[in-house]
Protein backbone atom coordinates (compact mmCIF):
# COMPACT_ATOMS: atom_id res chain seq x y z
CA UNK A 1 0.00 0.00 0.00
CA UNK A 2 1.48 3.31 -1.08
CA UNK A 3 0.47 6.95 -0.76
CA UNK A 4 0.60 7.18 3.04
CA UNK A 5 2.25 10.61 3.02
CA UNK A 6 0.39 13.92 2.81
CA UNK A 7 2.07 17.24 2.05
CA UNK A 8 5.34 18.32 0.44
CA UNK A 9 7.17 20.91 2.56
CA UNK A 10 5.23 20.19 5.76
CA UNK A 11 4.36 16.51 5.45
CA UNK A 12 2.84 13.70 7.48
CA UNK A 13 3.38 9.97 6.97
CA UNK A 14 0.96 7.81 8.95
CA UNK A 15 0.93 4.16 9.99
CA UNK A 16 -1.24 1.68 11.86
CA UNK A 17 -4.65 0.05 11.85
CA UNK A 18 -7.75 0.55 13.96
CA UNK A 19 -7.28 -2.60 16.05
CA UNK A 20 -3.52 -3.02 15.77
CA UNK A 21 -1.09 -2.27 18.64
CA UNK A 22 -0.81 1.42 17.80
CA UNK A 23 -1.26 4.12 15.19
CA UNK A 24 1.05 7.06 14.60
CA UNK A 25 2.97 9.22 12.23
CA UNK A 26 6.11 11.07 11.26
CA UNK A 27 5.93 14.83 10.66
CA UNK A 28 8.64 16.25 8.41
CA UNK A 29 9.33 19.88 7.57
CA UNK A 30 8.35 21.37 10.92
CA UNK A 31 10.60 24.39 11.61
CA UNK A 32 12.93 24.35 14.60
CA UNK A 33 12.34 26.31 17.77
CA UNK A 34 8.53 26.17 17.82
CA UNK A 35 7.24 25.98 21.39
CA UNK A 36 4.65 23.21 21.46
CA UNK A 37 1.55 23.58 23.62
CA UNK A 38 0.79 19.93 24.36
CA UNK A 39 -2.49 20.86 26.08
CA UNK A 40 -3.79 22.24 22.80
CA UNK A 41 -2.95 18.98 21.05
CA UNK A 42 -4.76 17.07 23.80
CA UNK A 43 -7.84 19.28 23.39
CA UNK A 44 -7.96 18.57 19.65
CA UNK A 45 -7.73 14.84 20.34
CA UNK A 46 -10.46 15.16 22.97
CA UNK A 47 -12.76 16.74 20.37
CA UNK A 48 -12.28 13.72 18.10
CA UNK A 49 -12.47 11.10 20.84
CA UNK A 50 -15.13 8.40 20.90
CA UNK A 51 -17.30 7.68 23.92
CA UNK A 52 -17.91 11.33 24.84
CA UNK A 53 -21.63 11.31 24.08
CA UNK A 54 -24.21 8.59 23.54
CA UNK A 55 -24.49 9.18 19.78
CA UNK A 56 -20.82 8.32 19.15
CA UNK A 57 -19.04 4.97 19.28
CA UNK A 58 -18.53 3.92 22.90
CA UNK A 59 -14.97 2.78 22.26
CA UNK A 60 -13.03 4.50 25.06
CA UNK A 61 -9.43 5.25 24.16
CA UNK A 62 -7.16 7.54 26.23
CA UNK A 63 -5.47 8.67 23.00
CA UNK A 64 -2.23 9.55 24.79
CA UNK A 65 0.44 10.69 22.36
CA UNK A 66 3.93 9.26 22.84
CA UNK A 67 6.52 11.50 21.17
CA UNK A 68 9.54 9.56 19.98
CA UNK A 69 11.66 12.24 18.32
CA UNK A 70 11.82 15.81 17.03
CA UNK A 71 10.81 17.60 20.24
CA UNK A 72 13.16 18.45 23.11
CA UNK A 73 12.32 20.46 26.22
CA UNK A 74 9.01 21.46 24.66
CA UNK A 75 10.48 22.83 21.43
CA UNK A 76 10.71 21.40 17.93
CA UNK A 77 14.20 20.48 16.75
CA UNK A 78 13.51 20.82 13.03
CA UNK A 79 14.05 17.07 12.71
CA UNK A 80 11.27 14.53 11.99
CA UNK A 81 8.66 14.39 14.75
CA UNK A 82 7.76 10.74 15.25
CA UNK A 83 4.85 9.83 17.52
CA UNK A 84 2.46 7.00 18.27
CA UNK A 85 -0.84 6.42 20.05
CA UNK A 86 -1.51 2.99 21.51
CA UNK A 87 -4.84 1.26 20.89
CA UNK A 88 -5.96 0.18 24.35
CA UNK A 89 -9.70 -0.46 23.97
CA UNK A 90 -9.74 -2.45 20.76
CA UNK A 91 -12.13 -5.40 20.47
CA UNK A 92 -11.15 -7.24 17.30
CA UNK A 93 -13.42 -10.13 18.28
CA UNK A 94 -16.40 -7.88 17.50
CA UNK A 95 -15.51 -8.29 13.82
CA UNK A 96 -14.90 -12.05 13.65
CA UNK A 97 -18.26 -12.69 12.03
CA UNK A 98 -17.52 -10.32 9.13
CA UNK A 99 -14.18 -11.91 8.27
CA UNK A 100 -15.58 -13.29 5.02
CA UNK A 101 -18.37 -10.74 4.47
CA UNK A 102 -18.35 -7.60 2.35
CA UNK A 103 -20.18 -4.91 4.31
CA UNK A 104 -22.31 -2.59 2.13
CA UNK A 105 -20.52 0.66 1.14
CA UNK A 106 -17.39 -0.23 3.14
CA UNK A 107 -13.88 -0.73 1.74
CA UNK A 108 -13.96 -4.50 2.41
CA UNK A 109 -14.52 -5.57 -1.19
CA UNK A 110 -12.15 -3.10 -2.86
CA UNK A 111 -9.34 -3.78 -0.37
CA UNK A 112 -9.75 -7.54 -0.83
CA UNK A 113 -9.67 -7.26 -4.60
CA UNK A 114 -6.75 -4.81 -4.73
CA UNK A 115 -4.45 -6.49 -2.19
CA UNK A 116 -5.76 -10.05 -2.04
CA UNK A 117 -5.86 -9.80 1.74
CA UNK A 118 -7.38 -7.40 4.26
CA UNK A 119 -7.56 -6.54 7.94
CA UNK A 120 -11.25 -6.94 8.70
CA UNK A 121 -10.92 -5.71 12.31
CA UNK A 122 -12.81 -2.44 12.20
CA UNK A 123 -11.78 -1.93 8.61
CA UNK A 124 -8.08 -1.86 9.46
CA UNK A 125 -6.43 0.99 7.58
CA UNK A 126 -9.76 2.22 6.20
CA UNK A 127 -11.06 2.95 9.70
CA UNK A 128 -11.67 6.56 10.66
CA UNK A 129 -9.35 5.97 13.62
CA UNK A 130 -6.44 5.84 11.17
CA UNK A 131 -6.94 9.62 10.72
CA UNK A 132 -6.02 10.30 14.35
CA UNK A 133 -2.36 11.11 13.46
CA UNK A 134 -3.70 13.86 11.19
CA UNK A 135 -5.25 15.52 14.24
CA UNK A 136 -1.87 15.55 16.00
CA UNK A 137 -0.05 16.96 12.96
CA UNK A 138 -2.85 19.44 12.33
CA UNK A 139 -2.77 20.65 15.93
CA UNK A 140 0.94 21.40 15.54
CA UNK A 141 0.27 23.09 12.19
CA UNK A 142 -2.42 25.25 13.83
CA UNK A 143 0.06 26.43 16.45
CA UNK A 144 2.53 27.47 13.75
CA UNK A 145 -0.23 29.23 11.76
CA UNK A 146 -1.24 31.17 14.88
CA UNK A 147 2.15 32.90 14.69
CA UNK A 148 0.84 34.46 11.45
CA UNK A 149 -2.59 35.11 13.01
CA UNK A 150 -4.16 32.58 10.60
CA UNK A 151 -7.28 31.01 12.13
CA UNK A 152 -9.60 28.18 11.07
CA UNK A 153 -13.24 27.95 12.10
CA UNK A 154 -15.88 25.35 11.30
CA UNK A 155 -19.67 25.26 11.40
CA UNK A 156 -22.10 22.36 11.09
CA UNK A 157 -24.59 23.52 8.46
CA UNK A 158 -26.52 20.35 7.70
CA UNK A 159 -27.54 17.11 9.43
CA UNK A 160 -29.65 14.97 7.12
CA UNK A 161 -32.38 17.23 5.73
CA UNK A 162 -31.96 19.83 8.51
CA UNK A 163 -30.03 22.90 7.34
CA UNK A 164 -28.94 25.95 9.29
CA UNK A 165 -26.08 28.48 9.27
CA UNK A 166 -24.72 26.96 12.47
CA UNK A 167 -26.24 23.85 14.06
CA UNK A 168 -25.09 23.85 17.69
CA UNK A 169 -23.56 20.84 19.43
CA UNK A 170 -26.69 20.28 21.53
CA UNK A 171 -28.86 20.43 18.42
CA UNK A 172 -26.59 17.91 16.69
CA UNK A 173 -26.88 15.52 19.63
CA UNK A 174 -30.68 15.74 19.69
CA UNK A 175 -30.94 15.16 15.93
CA UNK A 176 -28.61 12.18 16.03
CA UNK A 177 -30.41 10.60 18.98
CA UNK A 178 -33.50 10.27 16.77
CA UNK A 179 -31.43 8.65 14.01
CA UNK A 180 -29.80 6.23 16.43
CA UNK A 181 -33.18 5.14 17.79
CA UNK A 182 -34.07 4.01 14.27
CA UNK A 183 -30.83 2.04 13.95
CA UNK A 184 -29.86 4.21 11.02
CA UNK A 185 -27.16 6.75 10.12
CA UNK A 186 -27.22 10.17 8.48
CA UNK A 187 -25.04 12.48 6.36
CA UNK A 188 -23.83 15.97 7.19
CA UNK A 189 -22.17 19.11 5.86
CA UNK A 190 -19.54 21.46 7.27
CA UNK A 191 -18.51 25.02 6.37
CA UNK A 192 -14.88 25.97 6.96
CA UNK A 193 -13.61 29.56 7.16
CA UNK A 194 -9.93 30.51 7.09
CA UNK A 195 -9.01 34.06 8.05
CA UNK A 196 -5.84 36.11 7.51
CA UNK A 197 -4.29 33.90 4.83
CA UNK A 198 -1.83 36.19 3.02
CA UNK A 199 -2.14 37.05 -0.64
CA UNK A 200 -0.30 34.70 -3.02
CA UNK A 201 -0.70 31.25 -1.42
CA UNK A 202 -1.14 28.45 -3.98
CA UNK A 203 0.22 27.67 -7.43
CA UNK A 204 -1.62 28.60 -10.67
CA UNK A 205 -1.73 25.18 -12.30
CA UNK A 206 -1.52 21.69 -10.82
CA UNK A 207 -1.23 22.87 -7.21
CA UNK A 208 -4.02 25.41 -7.05
CA UNK A 209 -4.98 26.24 -3.47
CA UNK A 210 -8.50 24.88 -3.96
CA UNK A 211 -7.21 21.63 -5.49
CA UNK A 212 -4.93 21.08 -2.49
CA UNK A 213 -7.81 21.70 -0.10
CA UNK A 214 -10.01 19.35 -2.11
CA UNK A 215 -7.28 16.68 -2.05
CA UNK A 216 -7.08 17.03 1.73
CA UNK A 217 -10.84 16.80 2.22
CA UNK A 218 -11.25 13.79 -0.05
CA UNK A 219 -8.55 12.03 1.98
CA UNK A 220 -11.02 11.97 4.88
CA UNK A 221 -13.37 9.02 5.27
CA UNK A 222 -16.97 9.52 4.11
CA UNK A 223 -16.35 12.79 2.22
CA UNK A 224 -18.54 12.94 -0.89
CA UNK A 225 -18.43 16.58 -1.88
CA UNK A 226 -16.26 19.71 -1.80
CA UNK A 227 -17.03 23.21 -3.00
CA UNK A 228 -15.37 26.56 -2.36
CA UNK A 229 -16.81 30.02 -2.74
CA UNK A 230 -20.22 29.87 -4.39
CA UNK A 231 -19.44 26.32 -5.48
CA UNK A 232 -22.27 24.60 -7.35
CA UNK A 233 -24.51 27.63 -6.81
CA UNK A 234 -22.27 29.53 -9.26
CA UNK A 235 -23.74 27.41 -12.06
CA UNK A 236 -27.04 29.26 -11.58
CA UNK A 237 -25.48 32.73 -11.53
CA UNK A 238 -24.63 35.28 -14.23
CA UNK A 239 -21.19 36.80 -14.45
CA UNK A 240 -22.60 40.18 -13.49
CA UNK A 241 -23.65 38.82 -10.09
CA UNK A 242 -20.84 36.29 -9.54
CA UNK A 243 -17.86 38.56 -10.32
CA UNK A 244 -15.99 39.98 -7.33
CA UNK A 245 -15.29 43.60 -8.24
CA UNK A 246 -12.17 45.28 -6.87
CA UNK A 247 -11.93 48.51 -4.88
CA UNK A 248 -9.23 50.49 -3.09
CA UNK A 249 -9.60 50.23 0.69
CA UNK A 250 -7.23 52.95 1.95
CA UNK A 251 -4.38 51.71 -0.20
CA UNK A 252 -5.24 48.00 0.01
CA UNK A 253 -6.87 46.29 -2.97
CA UNK A 254 -9.89 44.26 -1.89
CA UNK A 255 -13.06 42.78 -3.40
CA UNK A 256 -16.54 44.08 -2.63
CA UNK A 257 -17.95 40.54 -2.57
CA UNK A 258 -16.34 37.16 -2.02
CA UNK A 259 -18.10 34.73 -4.35
CA UNK A 260 -14.62 33.39 -5.22
CA UNK A 261 -14.12 32.10 -1.68
CA UNK A 262 -10.85 33.97 -1.28
CA UNK A 263 -9.19 32.16 -4.20
CA UNK A 264 -8.71 33.40 -7.76
CA UNK A 265 -6.64 31.60 -10.37
CA UNK A 266 -5.72 29.00 -7.77
CA UNK A 267 -4.07 31.66 -5.59
CA UNK A 268 -5.29 33.29 -2.36
CA UNK A 269 -6.40 36.89 -2.90
CA UNK A 270 -6.24 38.03 0.72
CA UNK A 271 -9.97 37.68 1.44
CA UNK A 272 -11.51 35.04 3.71
CA UNK A 273 -11.21 31.52 2.30
CA UNK A 274 -14.30 29.41 2.79
CA UNK A 275 -15.50 26.03 1.58
CA UNK A 276 -18.09 23.34 2.26
CA UNK A 277 -17.55 19.62 2.79
CA UNK A 278 -20.33 17.04 2.45
CA UNK A 279 -20.23 13.65 4.19
CA UNK A 280 -22.21 10.55 3.35
CA UNK A 281 -24.09 8.60 6.06
CA UNK A 282 -21.87 6.15 7.92
CA UNK A 283 -22.41 2.79 6.15
CA UNK A 284 -22.57 0.74 9.37
CA UNK A 285 -26.21 0.73 10.44
CA UNK A 286 -28.17 -1.39 12.90
CA UNK A 287 -30.59 -2.68 10.28
CA UNK A 288 -30.65 -5.85 8.21
CA UNK A 289 -29.07 -5.51 4.76
CA UNK A 290 -28.31 -7.87 1.92
CA UNK A 291 -24.70 -8.51 0.88
CA UNK A 292 -22.36 -11.28 -0.32
CA UNK A 293 -19.44 -13.15 1.19
CA UNK A 294 -15.97 -13.78 -0.27
CA UNK A 295 -17.33 -16.73 -2.26
CA UNK A 296 -20.11 -14.66 -3.80
CA UNK A 297 -22.90 -16.20 -1.72
CA UNK A 298 -25.75 -13.79 -1.03
CA UNK A 299 -26.72 -13.42 2.63
CA UNK A 300 -28.41 -11.18 5.16
CA UNK A 301 -26.18 -9.06 7.37
CA UNK A 302 -26.75 -6.84 10.40
CA UNK A 303 -23.95 -4.89 12.07
CA UNK A 304 -22.97 -5.30 15.72
CA UNK A 305 -20.51 -3.54 17.99
CA UNK A 306 -19.71 0.11 18.76
CA UNK A 307 -20.41 2.55 15.94
CA UNK A 308 -21.21 6.19 15.23
CA UNK A 309 -24.42 7.27 13.51
CA UNK A 310 -22.86 10.33 11.84
CA UNK A 311 -19.35 11.62 11.22
CA UNK A 312 -20.34 14.79 13.05
CA UNK A 313 -19.10 15.83 15.60
CA UNK A 314 -15.89 13.75 15.63
CA UNK A 315 -14.77 14.62 12.11
CA UNK A 316 -14.63 18.38 12.73
CA UNK A 317 -11.09 18.40 14.25
CA UNK A 318 -9.92 16.17 11.39
CA UNK A 319 -11.22 18.60 8.77
CA UNK A 320 -9.62 21.54 10.58
CA UNK A 321 -6.35 19.61 10.91
CA UNK A 322 -6.15 18.77 7.21
CA UNK A 323 -6.97 22.38 6.37
CA UNK A 324 -4.18 23.63 8.62
CA UNK A 325 -1.66 21.27 7.05
CA UNK A 326 -2.55 22.46 3.53
CA UNK A 327 -2.17 26.14 4.41
CA UNK A 328 1.10 25.59 6.28
CA UNK A 329 2.49 23.39 3.50
CA UNK A 330 1.84 26.12 0.91
CA UNK A 331 2.94 28.90 3.25
CA UNK A 332 6.38 27.38 3.90
CA UNK A 333 8.16 26.77 0.60
Main attributes?
333 residues; alpha+beta; 5-stranded antiparallel sheet; 7 helices; globular
Walk me through this protein's architecture.
The structure is a single chain. This protein is α+β, with helices and mostly antiparallel strands and 333 residues long. 23% of the residues lie in helices and 25% in strands. The chain is built from seven helices and 19 strands. The longest helix is centred in the C-terminal third of the chain and has 16 residues.
- Structural Rg: 21 Å
Residue share in helix? 10-25%
Sheet with most strands: strand arrangement: 1-2-3-7-4
- Broad structural category: alpha+beta
Shape: globular
| Distance from first to last alpha carbon | 28 Å
Strand elements, count: 19
Please give the count of helices.
7
Largest sheet: 5 strands, antiparallel
Mean pLDDT across all residues, rounded?
92
Q: Which stretches are poorly predicted, pLDDT < 50 over at least 5 residues? A: none
Order of helices and strands: EEEHEEEEEHHEEHEHEHEEEEEEEH
What percent of residues are in strands? Answer: 15-25%
Task: Give me the secondary-structure topology.
Blueprint: E1 5-6, E2 11-16, E3 22-28, H1 38-48, E4 65-67, E5 71-72, E6 75-76, E7 81-86, E8 101-102, H2 108-115, H3 132-146, E9 151-159, E10 162-163, H4 169-181, E11 188-195, H5 209-217, E12 223-228, H6 239-242, E13 246-249, E14 252-255, E15 263-264, E16 267-268, E17 273-279, E18 289-293, E19 298-301, H7 316-331
Antiparallel strand pairs: 1-2, 2-3, 3-7, 4-7, 5-6, 8-18, 9-10, 9-11, 11-17, 12-17, 13-14, 15-16, 18-19
Helix pairs in contact: 1-3, 3-7, 5-7
Amino acid sequence: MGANTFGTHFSLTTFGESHGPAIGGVIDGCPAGVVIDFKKIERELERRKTGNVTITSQRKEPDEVIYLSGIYEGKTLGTPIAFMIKNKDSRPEDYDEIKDIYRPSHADYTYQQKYGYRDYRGGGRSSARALLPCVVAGAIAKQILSIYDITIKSYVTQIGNVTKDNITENEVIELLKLVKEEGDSVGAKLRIEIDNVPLGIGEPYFKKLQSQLAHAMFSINAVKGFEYGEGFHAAAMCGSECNDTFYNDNGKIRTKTNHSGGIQGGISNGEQIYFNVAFKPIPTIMQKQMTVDCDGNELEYMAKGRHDVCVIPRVIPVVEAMTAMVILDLLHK
